[in-house]
Amino acid sequence: MPTNAEYENSIAQYNWDDLLNLWELIKKREEMVGWEPGKAFEYLILRAFQLEGAKVRWPFEVDVGEEVVEQIDGVIYVDGRSFLIECKDQSQNVNFEPIAKLQSQLTRRPASVIGVIFTSLAFTDPAITLASFISPQTILLWSGAEVDYALQHDYMRQGLIEKYRYAVEYGLPDYNIKVEDIP
Asked: Domain holding 83: CATH number?
């Protein structure tokens, strides 16, 4: 099993074409040599933001004493904002549980930190509905279709800012970045 440092060194070699190829493997649910299940998606997301100029903090654990209390998939710093990242690459649409987990992690962070959940597929309707009722609205949702669009158009960073802006203006977590303009 590779270490986080080995994953970081590996993904640091990836350019946009490499990321697009990795994304195609993830979408096909093919086994990827050198990647534990779910790890390729985590590192792909962070690397895409890094290639667009965002500062990233790679996956890490938070310890209290000798106990691991949190496993964080990453942090993205864009335009003076901080985003705590959760990535879900699973064979079914994401339900509410990862949203609840991320909300719990956000309670230990400064109020200005926004959570973002990326999935390689989609979210269930109950997950979207329940995410809409989190108060304050601090979690943004990214579907696999949006990840696909953003990777194809070098639009990760701008898409994140648009999602954030929509959440500020409308209080909703699931603005679709494939829509041309925010209403």
From this structure: 3.40.91.70
Segments forming the whole domain that contains residue 108: 4-170
Neighbours of 42 (CB within 10 A): 24
Prediction pTM value: 0.95
Mean pLDDT of the residues in the chain = 93
Q: Is 176 among the domain residues?
A: no
Please indicate, yes or no, if residue 180 is contained in any of the structural domains.
Answer: no
Q: How many domains does the chain have?
A: 1
Q: Is 182 part of a structural domain of the chain?
A: no
Per-residue pLDDT of 154-173, as tens digits, reads 999 999 999 999 999 999 99
Distances in Å between the Cα of 34 and the Cα atoms of 1, 2, 118, 150, 161 are: 8, 7, 22, 25, 32
